[in-house]
Amino acid sequence: MGCQEENLLVQKVVDLYEKISTLHSLKPSKDVDTLFTQLVHECIPRASIDVTKLPKKIQEMRSKLIKLCGEAEGHLESHFSTLLATFGDNPLNHLNIFPYYSNYLKLSQLEFTILTQNLPNLSPTRVAFVGSGPLPLTSIVLASYHLTNATFHNYDINPSANSMAERLVSDDPDLSKRMFFHTADIMDVTAPLKHYDVVFLAALVGMDKSEKVKVVEHLAKYMAPGAVLMLRSAHDARAFLYPVVDPCDLRGFEVLSVFHPTDDVINSVVIARKFPLLPCIDHQGIGSNFPLLPCIDHQGIGSIILPCKCSEIQGFNPLNQMNMIEELAVEEQLK
Questions:
Q1: Which residues have a Cβ under 8 Å from the Cβ of 264 and sit 6 or more positions away?
Q2: Which end of the chain is more exposed for a tag (fewer CB within 10 A), N or C?
Q3: Residue 42: which residues within 8 A CB-CB, separation 6 or more?
């Protein structure tokens, strides 16, 4: 993207932010729907732009815009969760009334395919989704179509969101037995995390870099060795809508792949695996197990022990029908 095009895009985003920030409410309405639709349309087309290199004032605006997007998304999900609950039969039969349901179908298919192609021998039986919200579409789609034998434990800090979500699946003969909802700050969840084969982290859990890093470090501390972490990120102009996950910040995890959709699926997908416990021999020759973590050499210089698969992200297209581009090799990012 040329400098002139980049400036034009940034100005459009700034103009939309100013209009959105003056709205009296971010609950679904004609004005809210129109402005956020325009924002998404500006950010979805492939535009090579590094938001971390934009002026400080623009980066501050971006942080505020992401929070506004998160608030609006929460209101939208609450609205449709409430609407779905009014149907006389199983609410899950009417999920297609949600305007972005097709995007969730594509994103869940993408995440499942990335998971199975990177770890073909993994058959998850216990899955956690952190930041599930009042309309837990990812958990519902994965449980219904992809991980049909797994139990899903959904975590959200908002008790109202969990009540609304639980109401949606309570009449479903299958999911009512396999989906569970926990009201908790994930930073307060410790021992249960070791029981999950896969943990999904919603894009808006950890609105800025420091918050995201704290959550990831907490998961790295308590997840089981070898367990999988699936994260949602954003790339190029889409980073005006969601936080960016830097693979270098996934301490304690082996990054397997990073994928950036170029269609109407907004979120990038990052798959990582917690480093396994490896035998370690101490100076007395006594063996013990320690996680594979960053180490300090004799000069006090930090380095990261990376298995072969992490030192270079493998190139493959997870979905033939979706146009993907690969992230730079992790090895290059860590330099």
A1: 44, 103, 106
A2: C
A3: 9, 12, 13, 16, 237
